[in-house]
Design a protein that fits this description.
Low-confidence stretches of chain B: none
Helix content of chain A: 40-55%
Strand content of chain A: 5-15%
Order of helices and strands of chain B: HHEEEEHEHHEHHEEEH
Distance between the termini of chain B: 29 Å
Strand order of the largest sheet of chain B: 1-5-9-6
Largest sheet of chain A: 8 strands, parallel
CATH class of chain B: Alpha Beta
CATH architecture of chain B: 3-Layer(aba) Sandwich
Number of domains of chain B: 1
Distance between the termini of chain A: 71 Å
CATH topology of chain B: NADH Oxidase
Mean pLDDT of chain B: 91
Number of strands of chain B: 9
Structural class of chain B: alpha+beta
Strand order of the largest sheet of chain A: 1-10-7-6-5-4-3-2
Largest sheet of chain B: 4 strands, antiparallel
Radius of gyration of chain A: 30 Å
Low-confidence stretches of chain A: 791-796
Number of helices of chain A: 30
Structural class of chain A: alpha/beta
Number of helices of chain B: 8
CATH architecture of the domain at 3-288 in chain A: Alpha-Beta Barrel
Helix content of chain B: 40-55%
Oligomer: heterodimer
CATH topology of the domain at 3-288 in chain A: TIM Barrel
Largest interface: A-B, 50 and 47 residues
Shape of chain B: elongated
CATH class of the domain at 3-288 in chain A: Alpha Beta
Number of strands of chain A: 25
Chain lengths: ~800, ~200
């Protein structure tokens, strides 16, 4: 029987270690180089594994990526070709050969400097070389970051057609280094289409049993387990694993008996361990492997998984520009921070998932949606719902997403099914399915259910299981048809209770055209929840709606000891800090009271011009805070608390103006960037916060920014002032390059610089116009340069 | 972990002056949050070392640095250490940079002070190791001090297998990721032998 037919039916044996055996042969270079220089040693070890009875031999390619081989003098292709050739010769038809892919050793952006796309290419290059060399499958192993796993899986899928197995390495508590628990890692790997998944390395077989049980409980895929040969003992400069072959074999039998499909060894195991393991397992009863769990809908991020089940999951709806002029303005200005703050606010209000939609005319939706998704997943573990009708935007966001997202949406139209289903399959997304097709929205429950059945069936053709379909039964306003609520509710009931599908609704349509909409919406939500609704897309700031959710959870036995209900509905003690709108805006800002500043500004806006508020209240208070800071009366945290309060006041003004279709006039535009190579941007962010308060328009290019991008932005946006930061001597070189580029092509533009390693003379030396030791200095310089520039236009 | 608030305030530029109640309360709250993200991860290993003119050698690594050589004068052993706070701390600081910059700088300062404090704790553990318990320990010396090139971080992380063991990595520009991390060399010398040298620390 072919290996892939046996998978999940019979026990399959992987080989053991390579690297730790090479160490004992006196390895003095990268292990992969021995594929070229000492092939006989590699082949001897692998023959040992084939002789022991392994079904799969792992080629000696764990670190054969272009980053690790950079200074070796060897190409990825030649190393992998040699490695696969050796393994095939050692296997001699007795075993399959797997390309071994390990971590790059770099952390992906935004925290590290390796971009997701570079990682995809790096892994893809390995996969292509392996397929060309005749490997049978790809093993992605020893991974400790979900994002890198995703890059490797996408790379493997795009550059080859080989089956993929994925094995990761959690710590003793079951967490990956970048935050995922086992369920979360498994959820993503499963959805991206691995044919088996599991754990390797990190610990010995005894410790791995419990972790293996956790993997088994969270997947229906065949599970693979390859522990180390015990726990390492460091004696002098050597690392020794001293578990005996017999003991190793004994524990591996127990692991296999848990229901594991594929077993092998990692560091410290040798052919003799694997031979003992196989001999012991061959004596086992064959019936251990069981794969028959009922699966549920799971949506995940880098760090957590939301299961759609009996309790009602709340999806925050506010990152959607439709009908929201302030968000539209922010998206147009590429003000991603506003978008991210909207996300954080909804999480505070109780959102379990966030819907992200950037669909509006006049912007590059794909770029904006991808940036929003990337930004949000950098600051929160709340999983995202990628909401777009634009297929390019959907792909851009799905690709960058770190986890298993929910894609909103597919519907029953042929075109939608053909476009969306393959995309969801490739990127491992669950889907919102809208019950409409070319005939529109059916007016009967039967009609809607029929579309659900069609979508589920089509999805299955693409290998998308029904638990990954979350059906939206659609809400139509009750004012046009007395039966509209009933049709929707009956559909939800049928989908959930007859078809076993998860469901989702946006409920607010129900009240369109009627008074007291909030009460009606909340009532409808409660009814839908009682019929089995799994998730609702709501405005989490809407109290009636959130009250309904709390009540639902209490009355359906999901609020232990009524504790959440009591917490939410008990009379509140007055806030420690009284919201005092009688104080002046000036004082509220100086005291760093953001909520007060916002409320005062709101009431001032009733009879005061917004520019007057800015010029006569906001700016003077910031000036005072700035002066106090310079005198050493207040310190950086207080200065920034004032800045933050001023930001709240500004936000009230912007909201007020966007409702009237106006925008605030800005004082001038400044480009800020932390230079290429540099990933520490806190200093730049402080400067940005203060400059924004002085009503400058900031184009924040972020960190690790290419010199050319700074220059392009300066030219395109006709910018007269650039601020650059660098923290390290190694990156000041890029600062110098960036300055030279700008001075050559856009000499009108002034450049100010700052950062830990800079001094005034150093700044002069690299051609900067101004060095600021702190953020206030940057503000003063900006005021000087840009207010002076106001009269004259920049030179094109 | 007992956080020294004075250190945090100094990091924030208070220069020995008193802080207001809001700031102190913020420090307490954020420190709790950071501690809840988990203990730091660290690695330390001890090597025999040879120091000569401008060069320090251990098995598998030669460091050319007159600052380090001077610092390690007379040392017979050294320990390489690597310590990192969880990447979740970077994420927290990033979240605060969006939500409230004052909290971001306070979190940044707390995390920096914590890394130092955790390194102090790690030093105490290393000092108790039987390989060096009879020796005197010098203060830790990190790449970037004097002419000790930060590129050596790559070798230190490599010798400790820090990428795999504790997830500590480098960028192309030799910045440590997670950002709240330290690599350092700690020298050990025997007092009796040291009489042959004139130490100038």
């Amino acid at each position: 029987m072919d290996l892939f037919d046996k998978l999940g039916k019979e026990l399959i044996f992987f080989d053991g270690a390579m690297g730790s055996i090479l160490q004992s042969h006196g390895l003095d270079t990268l292990p992969e180089i021995w594929n070229i220089t000492k092939p006989h040693i590699i082949e001897d070890i692998q023959k040992g594994y084939a002789d022991a009875g392994c079904d799969i031999i792992t080629a000696n390619t764990l670190g054969a990526n272009r980053l690790k081989l950079a200074d070796s003098g060897y190409e990825v292709n030649e190393i992998i070709e040699a490695a696969v050739k050796i393994s095939k010769s050692a296997a001699n038809g007795r075993a399959k050969v797997a390309l071994d892919i390990g971590p790059t050793g770099k952390l992906l952006a935004p925290f590290g400097d390796l971009s997701f796309e570079s990682a995809v290419e790096i892994f893809g290059e390995m996969a292509r070389a392996a397929e060309e060399a005749g490997a049978d499958l790809i093993l992605i192993e020893t991974m400790n970051d979900t994002y890198e796993i995703k890059a490797a899986m996408i790379g493997a899928k795009e550059y080859s057609n080989l089956p993929i197995m994925v094995s990761f390495t959690p710590d003793a508590t079951g967490r990956l280094l970048t935050g995922a628990d086992i369920l979360t890692a498994v959820t993503m790997i499963e959805s991206l289409g691995a044919c088996a998944l599991g754990l390797n390395c990190g610990t010995g077989p005894i410790q791995m049993k419990e972790l293996a049980a956790e993997v088994l409980a969270s997947t229906n895929l065949p599970v693979m387990i390859s522990p180390n040969g015990g726990l390492p003992k460091i004696t002098g400069k050597n690392t020794v694993y001293d578990m005996s072959c017999e003991e190793f074999a004994e524990h591996m039998v127990e692991i296999a008996a848990q229901g594991v499909s594929i077993i092998g060894g990692c560091c410290g195991t040798e052919p003799k361990h694997i031979a003992a393991m196989i001999a012991a397992c061959n004596k086992m009863d064959k019936m251990s492997i069981k794969i028959s769990k009922e699966m549920v809908t799971r949506i995940s991020s880098y760090g957590q998984t939301v299961i759609l089940g009996d309790s009602l999951a709340i999806i925050g709806e506010r990152i959607n520009p439709t009908g929201k002029p302030r968000l539209k303005q922010a998206l147009k200005d590429n003000d991603m921070e506003y978008v991210l703050r909207e996300g954080l606010a909804q999480i505070d209000e109780g959102a379990l998932l966030l819907d992200v939609n950037a669909g509006m005319p006049g912007i590059d939706e794909a770029k904006t949606l991808a940036e929003a998704v990337f930004g949000l997943q950098s600051i929160t573990a709340v999983p995202l719902v990628i909401d777009t009708a634009n297929i390019t935007a959907a792909e851009a966001a799905l690709r960058l997403y770190n986890g298993k997202p929910l894609l909103n949406s597919v519907n029953g139209k042929k075109e939608s099914l053909e476009q969306i289903l393959p995309l969801a399959k490739k990127y491992g997304a669950a889907l919102v399915a809208l019950l409409l097709d070319d005939g529109g929205i059916p007016e009967t429950t039967g009609g809607r259910v029929a579309i659900a059945e069609k979508i589920v069936k089509e999805a299955a053709h693409y290998g998308i299981p029904k638990e990954d379909i979350v059906v939206d039964a659609l809400t139509l306003t009750i004012s046009t048809n007395d039966n509209n609520a009933k049709i929707t509710l009956d559909t939800v009931d049928y989908l959930k209770n007859q078809m076993g599908l998860s469901t989702i609704l946006g409920v607010s349509n129900i009240s369109f055209g009627l008074p007291s909409r909030e009460i009606l919406n909340a009532g409808f939500l409660l009814l839908a929840a009682s019929r089995g609704l799994s998730a609702a897309i709501v405005n989490t700031a809407n109290k009636s709606m959130m009250d309904a959710v709390h009540i639902h959870n209490l009355l359906t036995g999901q609020d232990e000891n009524s504790s959440n209900y009591i917490k939410v509905f008990s009379p509140k003690a007055p806030d420690d800090v009284k919201k005092d709108t009688s104080t002046s805006l000036f004082n509220a800002i100086l005291s760093g009271l953001g909520e007060d500043a916002r409320l005062i500004t709101q009431s001032m806006l009733k009879d005061t011009d917004s520019l007057d508020i800015i010029n006569e209240h906001l700016i003077p208070s910031l000036d005072k805070a700035g002066q106090d800071f310079e005198k050493g009366v207040i310190f950086l945290p207080q200065l920034l608390m004032s800045a933050s309060a001023a930001k709240s006041a500004f936000e009230a003004i912007r909201l007020h103006m966007s409702k009237k279709g106006q925008t605030t006039a800005k004082r001038g535009t400044i480009v800020l960037a932390t230079v290429k190579g540099d990933i520490h941007d806190i200093g730049k962010n402080i400067v940005k916060t203060l400059l924004e308060n002085y009503n400058f328009h900031i184009i924040d290019l972020g960190k690790n920014v290419e010199p050319d991008l700074v220059l392009e932005t300066v030219i395109k946006e006709k910018v007269n002032l650039v601020g650059l930061s660098a923290l390290m001597t190694t990156t000041v070189a890029y600062m110098e390059e960036t300055i030279a580029r700008i001075k050559e092509k856009a000499p009108h533009c002034q450049i100010m610089v700052g950062g830990a390693v800079l001094t005034e003379s150093y700044a002069n030396e690299i051609g900067a116009d101004f060095y600021s030791p702190d953020a206030m200095g940057a503000v003063k310089y900006a005021v000087k340069v840009l207010d002076q520039h106001k009269a004259k236009m920049p030179i094109d | 972990m007992r956080l020294n608030k004075r250190d945090v305030l100094d990091y924030l530029g208070y220069q020995g002056k008193l802080a207001d109640g809001n700031t102190l309360a913020m420090i307490d709250k954020i420190a709790e949050e950071i501690i809840a993200l988990g203990a730091p991860k660290s690695l330390a290993r001890i090597w025999d070392c040879r120091t000569s003119d401008k060069m320090v050698e251990i098995d598998g690594l030669t460091i050319n640095s007159s600052s380090l050589t001077k610092h390690l004068t007379g040392c017979s052993r050294l320990s390489l250490i690597a310590l990192t706070l969880d990447i979740q701390v970077d994420r927290l600081i990033r979240r605060y940079s969006v939500a409230d910059m004052s909290k971001a700088i306070v979190a940044d300062a707390i995390a920096s002070v914590m890394v130092d404090a955790y390194c102090d704790e790690l030093e105490m553990e290393i000092a108790a190791d039987t390989m060096v318990a009879s020796l005197k320990m010098l203060p830790r010396f990190s790449p970037g001090y004097g002419d000790f090139d930060i590129a050596y971080q790559k070798d230190i992380l490599g010798l400790l297998d820090a990428g795999k063991q504790i997830g500590l990595t480098l960028t192309d520009g030799y910045m440590l990721v997670p950002s709240k991390s330290v690599t350092a060399v700690i020298g050990f010398y025997s007092e009796s032998i040291m009489n042959h040298y004139i130490r100038r620390d």
